[in-house]
Amino acid sequence: MDIKKLIATVALLTASFSACAATPFKLALTTWIGYSPFYVADGMDMYKKYNLKVTLQTFSDPAMLPSAVSSKAVDGALMTYDQVIGAAAQGQALKVVMPIDYSNGGDAVLADMSINKITDLKGKKVAYAPLSPSDFLISYALKINSMTDKDISPVNMTPEAIPSAMASKAVPAGVTYEPNVSQILALEGGKKFHVIYSSKEAPGLIADVLVFDAEHIKKNGKEITGVVKAYLDGLAYMKAHPKEASEIIGKAIGVSGKEVLEQLDGVYNIPPSEMKQPFTKGKDTKSYFVSGEVINEILLKSGQIKKAVAISATIDDSFVKAVLK
User: Fold this and answer.
1) Closest CA to 288 of 298, 305, 299, 275
2) Domain spans of the chain?
3) Which neighbouring-strand residues pair with 110?
C-alpha cells in the first residue's frame, strides 16, 4: 500500500471512530431518590445506546444547580420546579424539557416529639437550606397555617447536615428530603423525631424536572433526546426488575436496596402515559401552570423574586412529545 492510500485509510478509520465515540454529557443533581431512573441508566450504561457518555455530577447544595447550568459548568441539571422559577426571575433562561417526579412524602418537616404540628414551630429554630425545595415546603406549610418565616427562627443548613444537627439537639426541627428523612426518623430507635408535615399533603407541589439552558437546547437536541430516552429505559427497568434496580440505586446513593424500596414510596416517578400532563393547563398542582402560580405567589411574598414569572416561558414540551409520539 502506498503512503497516500495509507494516509487515506487512517483518516477514514479516525473519522469513523470519531463518529462512533460517545458524546460526553454532564448532568448536575443532588442526591434524591426520585432520580432513581437516572441512577439505573448510569449503572447499566443505558446512555451508550444513544451515543452518550453521561456523568452525573452531585452537588451538596441544591441552590448551586441553576448557576451551574447557566455558567455552562454542566450541560443540564435535575432540579425542582420552584428553582426553575427562581432562576427565571433572575434572568436565567432555563427550560423544563421533561417531568421526572413529584415528591409524595419524600420531603418533610421533622421535629422532636415536643412539637406536633406546624403552629408549634412558632419561635423555634428550624434548619433548612435557603432557596431550596426545603425552603419552599416550609414556606407553603407556614402559609396554609397563617404563618411566615418571621414566626420561626430559620437556621441556614445544607440538607445533609440536618440529621446530625437534630441528633445533637442543635435544632429541634428541620426540613429535608430522602434519604435524610429516613435517617432522622431512625435516630434513637425511632422514638426521638417524627414528621409533622410532608409533601404527601401537597402532591405535585415539589416537582423534579430535567432542565437545560435555552441556548443549549437549540444546539444539542439530539443529545437531550438521548438523555430523555435513557431515562425512560431506566424507569422501565425499575418497573420490570425492582429488586435488581434497587441494588443499583442503593449503590449510587449509599443505602441498601431494601432502604431504596422503602424510600421510593415517598416519590412518584411520572410514567410516559402522564408526561404531557404537567405541561398542560390543569386544575391541580400536578400541572406546572397551577403549581407554578402557587410558587410565584410564595416567592413573591417572601421577597425571593420581584415579579411573577410566566410559566409558559419555563417549559419546552417538544422533546416529550417527540419521544412519546
Assistant:
1) 275
2) 22-103+209-293+309-324, 107-201
3) 174, 195
Residue 18 confidence (pLDDT) above 50: no
Supply angle C-alpha 144, 145, 147, rounded to 5. Answer: 105
Q: Are 205 and 294 in contact (CB under 8 A)?
A: yes
Characterize the bridge pairing of strands 107-112 and 173-177: antiparallel
**Over 80: is that where the pLDDT of 97 sits?**
yes
Question: What residues are paired with 95 via a beta bridge?
Answer: 212
CATH topology match: 22-103+209-293+309-324 vs 107-201: yes
Residue 124: left (phi > 0), alpha (psi -120 to 50), or beta? beta
**Predicted confidence (pLDDT) at residue 40 exceeds the cutoff of 90:** yes
Label the pairing between strands 173-177 and 125-128. parallel
Inform me whether the pLDDT recorded for 10 exceeds 70: no
Model confidence, pTM: 0.80
All cell numbers assigned to 24: 460526553
Distances in whole angstroms, Cα of residue 285 to Cα of each of 201, 249, 325? 11, 28, 25
Give the relative orientation of helices 288-301 and 81-89 as an angle to the nearest 10 degrees. 60
Q: How far apart (Å, rounded) are the C-alpha atoms in residues 246 and 159?
A: 23
Output the CA torsion sign for 65, 68, 73, 74: positive
Class of domain 107-201 as given by CATH = alpha beta
Considering only the top CATH level, what class is 22-103+209-293+309-324?
alpha beta
CA–CA distance, 291 with 288 (Å, rounded to integer): 5
3-state secondary structure 273-286: HHCCHHHCCCCCCC
Q: Which three cell numbers stand for residue 305?
A: 423574586
